[in-house]
């Protein structure tokens, strides 16, 4: 009996350890602007799980709610945002923005979805309440051509990159109206991201070929460093140690050591046209879209080695994840 009990304890321990140390499984959502689809890739099977058709073209941004239940995507030129049930892959709501829907990002608390839009009627930022899936506010102040958004870690501020204005627009997420325009000290503010502590905002300057570091407390540029031609996207590793930067004009992703005065520690050059970067929520992997060959490349976030790659639709852009329990 003691032997049986001991074996049972070992089996229980094995199961427990297997649950706690096994890799987290994700469905990876990638919008493909060129063919109007969203590719759903499963990290466990390493197979394409589903392809969702959203329009003739797809918005460059994509956002998943924190509870993993809903996906927000859009038809880039059609002017609509769609709410997709992540379990069924079906559209459950169409939200008419009325302008070209480019960037789509969700606040950390999942309360609001921000849509950078505009062309025929001028630049706008549409704010969608995720409880009602209705547009509750439209911001136009200080905007000239918004592209992508990021948020402070506490979700109280949104930062909208505006390459036409060469500025970053700060939006108060509590009143949804107070905005400030921050100079970046460079040209073509294409994308932003914050440090994990929320103190620094990193801005990829496409035409300026730099990354600006802005103090979020003052809105002033603390420093800037040259990254290369057509600096397009930027992402901070979840541990706050490294800054990953897409330099499209050099066909590279450059990785900088933040604590060591942004020293270049790695240059990844096996992609023809890298586009956007997203880390898995557990911080173990970095997913990078590549437009020229219509691929997603998966890297180990710690040693920077490529783990795999897979084909998606035409012209893939941003990335988001649904955690599979």
Chain-averaged pLDDT: 93
- CA-based gyration radius: 20 Å
The oligomeric status of these chains comes to: single chain
Q: How are strands sequenced across the largest beta sheet?
A: 3-2-1-28
Please give the CATH architecture of the largest domain: 7 Propeller
Topology, number of strands: 28
**Strand and helix order:** HEEEEEEEEEEEEEEEEEEEEEEEEEEEE
At CATH level 3, the topology of the largest domain is Methylamine Dehydrogenase, Chain H
Main β-sheet description: 4 strands, antiparallel
Spatial shape: globular
Share of residues in strands: over 45%
Q: List segments where confidence is low: pLDDT < 50 over at least 5 consecutive residues.
A: 1-20
Helix content: under 10%
CATH superfamily of the largest domain: YVTN repeat-like/Quinoprotein amine dehydrogenase
Number of helices: 1
Key attributes of the depicted protein:
325 residues, mainly beta, Methylamine Dehydrogenase, Chain H, 2 domains, 4-stranded antiparallel beta sheet, globular, disordered N terminus
